[in-house]
Design a protein that fits this description.
With 206 residues, the chain is an alpha+beta fold. 48% of the residues lie in helices and 16% in strands. Strands 2-3-1-4-5 form a five-stranded mixed sheet. Helix 4 runs antiparallel to helix 8 (182-196). The longest helix has 16 residues, at 122-137.
């Protein structure tokens, strides 16, 4: 499973924004969480997932909103899984704690730790996830406007009309924001994370 620990950056000099971030997680995941976000201490909260694609959706949304150190832990969770995130235990939560501590000291404010005994390790997955976050952090406001419209199902022609720009301008935004590879990168990362969530020697996930 995937445990995520999130800590607000610079909370001593900023308003408490934990509830806003919890809303981002809940809206993005749309009922696909194993355990919902729950404040664990001060300006920190945790949640639990079992789907790699949903994990990426949520992590990318949090990283885009800025102001958060995000630690992703990959590993087992003690069963039966409790009703409360605060009561949950297991390797996924231990590694998420280690990851969020590291995340506070890196520019992306994101780190990932895989528990021992998995099919893939931290070094196999973390660099690609953090590189993707870095690329998205460099995306311009105009690039995000186009990305959001395309994600909502609009064509590039429709996006041009909605944005009030020419198709040629949309093509330039699409290229500059590197939107051509968004879906492919997301799918590839989800496959890697699923492998990392599989114990060594287990059958390949369906």
């Amino acid at each position: 499973m995937f445990a995520v620990t999130v800590d607000q950056v610079g909370s001593r000099s900023d308003d408490d924004r934990v509830e806003q971030a919890i809303d981002v997680v809940s809206t993005t995941a749309a009922g696909r969480l194993v355990l919902p976000p729950e404040r664990t201490a001060g300006d920190e909260f945790q949640f639990l997932l079992d789907d790699a694609g949903t994990l990426l959706d949520v992590v990318f949304a949090l990283a885009r909103s800025d102001g958060w150190s995000i630690g992703i832990g990959v590993g087992d969770v003690e069963e039966p899984v409790p009703d409360s995130t605060r009561a949950a235990r297991g390797d996924a939560f231990v590694t998420a704690r280690a990851a969020v501590d590291r995340a506070k000291d890196v520019p992306e404010h994101l780190a990932l730790e895989v528990a021992p005994g998995r099919r893939l390790g931290t070094a196999d997955v973390e660099p690609l996830v953090t590189q993707t976050v870095r690329a998205r952090q460099r995306r311009s406001r105009e690039g995000w406007e186009l990305a959001d419209l395309l994600r909502a199902g609009h064509s590039r022609t429709e996006a041009a009309e909605l944005l009030g720009v020419t198709p040629q301008a949309v093509a330039k935004r699409w290229s500059a924001a590197d939107l051509r590879s968004d879906d492919a990168v997301h799918a590839a990362l989800a496959r890697l994370l699923t492998e990392a969530d599989t114990p060594a020697g287990a059958d390949t996930p369906a």
